[in-house]
Amino acid sequence: MPKGLLVLLLLFSFNAAHSQVLEPGYLEVKTTAEDDSIDGDTFVIKWTGTIEAPITKDIETAILKFSAHKKNAILDISSPGGSVTEGAHLIEILRQFKKNHKLSSIVQRGGMCASMCVPIFLQGDHRVAARASTWMFHGARKWYTTIPDDQETDKNLIYFREAGVSEAWLQSILPYMRQPGEYWQTGGELFDSKSGLFDKALENHRQLEAKTLPINPGFGPR
By residue range, what is the domain housing residue 75? Predict the structure, then answer.
């Protein structure tokens, strides 16, 4: 086998072994005008996907647009993680917003909050997550290695401690963050272990209103 091809195959195998395919993210902003279940003083910032540029710019634009006449914001996030630098910039924007406003954060049923998503989620003054959500933690590391940088990991843990996350829980997962790998848990496991990542859990059963569409039973395939 040619040497160049062998190197490419090894690189592909290395990346596939310790990283996910990160889909581009997209932003959706809603107020009571789009969804009457949203309080009139609140706007919802829904981010789905990778934490990469232009997430900071897009969310900052939304905040500037609505913060003048809305008191509260809800960050509805589902993300596999992404850029530490972009995430840190977003955290700073959220902290500036929180000086005069209230911020809540939520991870919905079926949602994910992994890697850099977690410190962003922790910026919420009030935090909610579904038992049926998925979470992943790992030590801080460069894209080209699976080996964590303990010093950078300790810096990132400041976000957890500032948010009031349980020190006992942090110490329980720290050994996993000191070695190559990923530590996965469900929202239910995190809530039951009193991790302190969020203060309310959405239960697995989602109650829906009992209703039937007003259709003609005689209409349809025969």
Answer: 22-138+185-202
